[in-house]
Amino acid sequence: MKLSKIKEILPTLVNVGFQLENGTLVPEHFHVTEVGQITKNFIDCGGVIRSEKVVNFQLWNADDFEHKLKPAKLLNIIKLSEEKLGIEDAEIEVEYQSETIGKYDLDFNGDTFVLKNKTTACLAQDACGIPSEKVKKNLAELPVNNANACTPGGGCC
Fold first, then answer.
1. What pTM value is reported for the model?
2. In angstroms, rounded to a whole number, what is the distance separating the alpha carbons of residues 39 and 66?
3. CA 132 vs CA 51, 123, 125, 135: distances in Å
4. In what side-by-side order are the strands of the sheet with 30-43?
5. Cβ pair 87, 3 in contact under 8 A
6. In 1-156, which ranges are continuous DSSP H helix?
7. What is the spatial distance between Cα 110 and Cα 151, in angstroms, rounded to a whole number?
8. Pfam families this protein is in (predicted)?
9. Which of 136, 126, 118 is CA-nearest to residue 45?
10. Tens digits of per-residue pLDDT, 38-59?
11. Could you tell me which of 106, 118, 146, 138 has the C-alpha nearest to residue 5?
């Protein structure tokens, strides 16, 4: 989800809620402790120089169980970050700690923001020597060349 999309959604909400992809809810007393932009410059394993920018939200749970972040407050934090930091309309990456700090993509299910699991991938598979996945076919669906087929009594076997 891009920053512009969350800015469209927030004014329509009464409360801000997050949940993990498996349905586990982020405790409703969470804080958004950071909103910023992260730029990652790197070289992939094929030697291609790449650059990636994401808008970063960091969620944190404290012991102040009465805390409830309202949509207008989060929208104000976003606007302040845009003004002071010049963050761009990029994809949002959320940091949230369970066993360790996890990085998640963001989605919305119509009621709650969903922290979608991220995965790693090779960006230069052709340079890595990773074989491309073979297409699996059902033998019954393969065409039969009857000109080369053996028949009973045909003497080919």
1. 0.77
2. 35
3. 25, 13, 8, 9
4. 18-20, 113-117, 101-108, 92-97, 49-61, 30-43
5. yes
6. 3-9, 71-85, 125-128
7. 63
8. DUF6428
9. 126
10. 999 999 988 999 999 999 999 9
11. 106
